[in-house]
# Entry
Amino acid sequence: MIEHLTIVQHPLVQHKLTLMREKETPTAVFRQLLREISHLLAYEVTRNLEMTSVHIETPLTEMRAPKLAGKKLALISILRAGNGLLDGILDLIPSARVGFVGLYRDEETLKPVQYYFKVPTELEDRLVIAVDPMLATGNSSAAAIDLLKQAGATNIRFLCLLAAPEGVKRMAEAHPDVPIVTAALDSHLNEKGYIVPGLGDAGDRMFGTK
Ligand code: URA
# Structure
């Protein structure tokens, strides 16, 4: 079991995150950095996957060699910003199964509203990694995890780029069994629910919609 909150302190992660935070960083560069950073975060969130060993033949001899155990893991992108993390993780784990949870945040109540849900079969037998770059209020993340649990998932991890203390607290209360891996824990949320200092709206910045 990994810690409830893991902050990935690797210098490359922290350097890339600083570049992403800068408001003048162009969309294409932001997207490229997100892809690169997601490789490093994926490395951390999969650090203690269950292993088995198999019998193989190298050109020189036979041996027992380590291999990932169990069913292919499931990556769940929380739309739309989750897709930015998803692409990079799939570079590293190309055979992962992929699902999507569509939730939008009601700008007035800040509460999540579901508009799409499609996930791989046999979730109960898979490690499920839910991805969303910004853990802000934690409302949409907690709601997404609720839906994944209703669909059968029991072994879930949550991967984000930035977390606010409010979101970490909300997740710890709602889903203490779901470890969180993030690149940074920021100061607080502002009155509009944005993470401060943060990086702005992750979706807008990766897709160039503002
Ligand atoms: N979602 C974002 O994209 N950015 C924030 O700061 C908070 C939620």
